[in-house]
Design goal:
The structure is a single chain. The protein is an alpha/beta fold. It has one domain. It contains five helices and six strands, in the order ααββαβαββαβ. It has a four-stranded mixed sheet with strand order 1-3-2-4, with helices on both faces. It has a two-stranded antiparallel ribbon with strand order 5-6. 20% of the residues are buried. About 3% of the residues have low confidence.
C-alpha cells in the first residue's frame, strides 16, 4: 500500500513540475487578458465570432476567481487557433442550477458552427499549441490527454 501511495505522489510531483514549462503561457495570459477588473462586469459575450469551430463555457460569480483563469486560457487558445469562444457569466434560468445549462448554451449556437466543445469553468488548456478539434477527429477522443487540467 505504501509503495502505491508513494508512486502516485511521485507521478503527481512530476506532473506539477511539468507545469513550470507553462510559465510563458501564464505570462502571455497576464499580459493579454488582465484580471485586475472583475470579469463579471463584462457580462456574457462572444469572442472572435463567426468562426467554423467554437468553444463555450459558463460560470457564476461564486467561482469567478477560478473561472477567470480558465477564461483567460480559453480566450488565448481561441485567439491562437482562430476559434470562436462563448463565455456566459450568468445562468440562463436563475431558478435552475448552472450545470444544467450546458445543453441550452450549446444549442443556442450549434447551428452557427461546424462543431462546438463545452469547457467546464475549472479547466485550463495547458497545451495551447494542440488543436483540440483535429485531435478528436484524428484520434477519436481526448482520453489520456494531458492537454487539459482542472484548476
Amino acid at each position: 500500500m505504501e509503495s502505491t501511495v508513494s508512486s502516485v505522489f511521485l507521478r503527481m510531483r512530476k506532473r506539477w513540475l511539468s507545469l513550470a514549462d507553462l510559465l510563458p503561457f501564464f505570462e502571455f495570459c497576464a499580459d493579454h487578458f488582465p484580471t485586475k477588473q472583475p470579469f463579471q462586469s463584462l457580462g456574457n459575450y462572444v469572442f472572435n465570432p463567426g468562426r467554423s469551430l467554437a468553444l463555450c463555457t459558463l460560470y457564476t460569480p461564486e467561482i469567478g476567481a477560478c473561472a477567470a483563469e480558465s477564461e483567460k486560457s480559453l480566450l488565448s487558445y481561441c485567439l491562437r487557433h482562430d476559434y470562436t469562444a462563448y463565455v456566459y457569466r450568468a445562468p440562463l434560468y436563475p431558478a435552475i442550477h448552472p450545470a444544467l445549462h450546458k445543453a441550452r448554451v450549446l444549442l443556442n449556437h450549434l447551428s452557427e458552427h461546424q462543431a462546438m466543445i463545452w469547457m467546464d469553468s475549472d479547466t485550463l488548456i495547458l497545451r495551447q499549441e494542440e488543436k483540440v478539434f483535429e485531435r478528436i477527429l484524428n484520434k477519436g477522443s481526448l482520453e489520456n490527454s494531458n492537454m487539459f487540467s482542472l484548476i
